[in-house]
Amino acid sequence: MTTPDDHALLRRAIDLAAEARESGNPPFGSLLAGPDGTVLVEERNTTLTDRDVTAHPELKLARWAARELDAGTAADTTMYTSCQPCEMCAAVIRTAGLRRVVFALSGEQLLAIRPGSGRPPVPQDGPALLDEVRAVVEPYYR
């Protein structure tokens, strides 16, 4: 359930999306707020100007949080974003340990506005060589 305070911060994320669009990038913006609603950092999509397909604002904020905040502080933050994070960004947000994400436009709503990327899915084959990879990965988690 969102509150009027959430809506105010979400409106700022939408303003950041407009700024991204004005600079020639896809229209996505995000900010990270502390538990009292103080804005810690803001980001805009820069995938085109940076020529970096991963330069989503949500990813940049999650990376910032993981690098600059201790785990307890990160766990008290809320990300406000103009659009629901994609799978890539959602995975990094989880790994960074952020508490909550509030978004304006869902991924499904975005696809209704902008259907598909025009690119076919990339085939994936696996799992394979399970014993060999387990010997490398398992000791890390022990």
SSE map:
Blueprint: H1 4-22, E1 29-33, E2 39-44, H2 57-68, H3 71-74, E3 78-83, H4 87-96, E4 100-105, H5 107-113, H6 130-137
Parallel strand pairs: 3-4
Antiparallel strand pairs: 1-2, 1-3
Helix pairs in contact: 2-4
What does this structure look like?
Helix content is 42%, strand content 16%. By secondary structure, it is of the alpha+beta class. The protein starts with a helix and ends in a 5-residue tail after the last helix. The model has no long low-confidence stretch (mean pLDDT 96).
Strand percentage: 15-25%
- Please bin the fraction of helical residues: 40-55%
What's the arrangement of strands in the largest beta sheet? 2-1-3-4
Report the order of strands and helices. HEEHHEHEHH
The total beta strand count reads 4
Q: Categorize the overall geometry.
A: globular
Our measurement of the CA-to-CA distance between the termini, rounded to an integer number of angstroms, reads 39 Å
The main sheet comes to:
4 strands, mixed
Mean pLDDT: 96
